[in-house]
Design brief:
By secondary structure, the chain is mainly alpha-helical. It folds into three domains: 96 residues, Potassium Channel Kv1.1, Chain A (2-Layer Sandwich), CATH 3.30.710; 66 residues, Serine Threonine Protein Phosphatase 5, Tetratricopeptide repeat, CATH 1.25.40.420; 119 residues, TAZ domain (CREB-binding Protein, Chain A, Up-down Bundle), CATH 1.20.1020.10. Helices cover 55% and strands 4% of the residues. It has 16 helices and three strands. Strands 2-1-3 form a three-stranded mixed beta sheet. A hairpin with a 4-residue loop joins strand 1 and strand 2. The termini are far apart. 21% of the residues are buried. Pathway: Protein modification; protein ubiquitination. Keywords: Metal-binding, Ubl conjugation pathway, Zinc, Zinc-finger. InterPro entries: BT1/2/3/4/5 (IPR044513), BTB/POZ_dom (IPR000210), SKP1/BTB/POZ_sf (IPR011333), TAZ_dom_sf (IPR035898), Znf_TAZ (IPR000197). It comes from Gossypium gossypioides (Mexican cotton).
């Protein structure tokens, strides 16, 4: 008694077949479906998701459409009433479950309200709780309120669908600002990233939309952050970086030319160190020169004064000096009293230049003046035109 006996082929008992019964077949393996879209990854069979049959989904749709033994009425802002079942709502959404516990009603029926969303959008939302189904046309029309409802009532499956649909076509330049704000409120980081990138890539078009204007009035702080990110994006763009470097080098050249013009007038008018006008007396205790270009320009002037090939084009250094003198004459306000040599001569030469050369010089002068942010002509006025070394 109490002793377990094993039945084997070698020890048959009366009334028991010594042939083992055929075991029942294993249950059929349910078909496996991976989630589609860019979120799909290679998963093992144990972690994939099985899908309910179409018949079962049709049954749930019929239950919602027919309202058979519905015990909940859902009221919307526009006066609509949607009938549903408390068990389905409570199982699909913990938020609705809590609302139903607090809901009041007559007999077994209870009533809850969903505010701030159109009745049709609420109906699409409730239908999804039953069968996880939606029509593309409905999703296209109500994707924004459905995203809000899925977050507010903690329906993660619908929220994921809304994010995927927006990422794969429903996000556009007209709604991207609204979606960006909603993604922040609804804790949808991937959607935030995607909408933010679209704003940065199409900032000019997006900033002209009604969504941007509305955000400017309601959330000026968010607009400021977006503008800062646009500036940061432009600075980080390699193409913009190259353009920025090019402009910086160009500005440096124009600044050096302007400083050379100032130093040239300083040398011809006041004298510097050991070089200046013939009527200037130099002493050994001169104060240091404040013009950075003077040292290099002094060497250039000394070379120009003693070079045997001083004609333009004959010597590269002299050619540079000729160009500086001509540039000065174009910047000089009064060549009649200017002490820089050949200033008035170049003024006369300008009248005989070709139109092409004239345009080049005008562009150069304009850029130099813009670099120094000078409103009018530079006045390099002196009292004599002679210089000695």
């Amino acid at each position: 008694m109490g002793k377990m006996e094993m039945i084997t082929n070698t020890s048959p008992r009366k009334g028991v077949n010594n042939v083992h019964p055929t075991p029942p077949p294993l249950p059929a393996k349910a078909p496996e479906y991976g989630r589609k879209g860019i979120f799909m990854s290679k998963r093992s069979a144990a972690t994939r998701y099985s899908s309910a049959s179409s018949t079962a989904r049709d049954l749930w749709d019929s239950l919602f459409d027919g309202g058979y033994r519905a015990d909940v009425t859902i009221k919307t802002d526009d006066g609509g009433i949607i009938y549903a079942h408390a068990n389905v709502l409570g199982m699909a959404s913990p938020v609705l479950r809590g609302m139903l516990k607090r809901a009041k009603g007559f007999g077994k029926k209870r009533s809850i309200s969903i505010h701030g969303v159109h009745q049709d959008a609420v109906r699409v939302f409730i239908r999804f709780l039953y069968s996880s189904r939606y029509k593309y046309e409905e999703m296209k029309e109500f994707v924004v309120p459905l995203l809000v409802l899925s977050h507010a009532y903690a329906v993660s499956s619908l929220k994921r669908v809304c994010e995927q649909q927006l990422e794969h076509g429903l996000l556009n330049l007209e709604n991207v600002v609204d979606i960006f704000q909603l993604s922040l409120l609804c804790n949808a980081p991937r959607l935030t990233l995607i909408s933010h990138r679209m704003i940065l890539s199409n900032f000019k078009a997006v900033s002209a939309t009604e969504g941007w204007k509305s955000m400017r009035n309601s959330h000026p702080g968010l607009e400021k952050e977006l503008l800062e990110s646009v500036i940061e994006e432009e600075n980080c763009n390699p193409q913009n970086q190259k353009e920025k470097i090019r402009k910086s080098k160009e500005r440096k050249i124009y600044l050096e030319l302007f400083e050379a013009m100032e130093a040239l007038v300083h040398i011809c008018r006041d004298g510097c160190r050991t070089i200046g006008p013939h009527d200037k007396d130099f002493n050994q205790n001169q104060t240091p020169c404040k013009y950075r270009a003077c040292k290099g320009l002094e060497l250039l002037v000394r070379h120009f004064a003693g070079c045997k090939l001083r004609v333009p084009g004959g010597c590269i250094h002299c050619k540079r000096m000729w160009q500086l003198l001509e540039l000065h004459s174009r910047l000089c306000a009064d060549s009649t009293s200017c002490r820089v040599p050949l200033c008035s001569n170049f003024k006369e030469k300008v009248k005989k230049q070709s139109k092409k050369d004239e345009i080049k010089w005008k562009i150069l002068v304009k850029k130099i003046l813009r670099t120094k942010r000078i409103g009018g002509s530079v006045s390099f006025i002196a009292s004599s035109t002679s210089m000695s070394s």
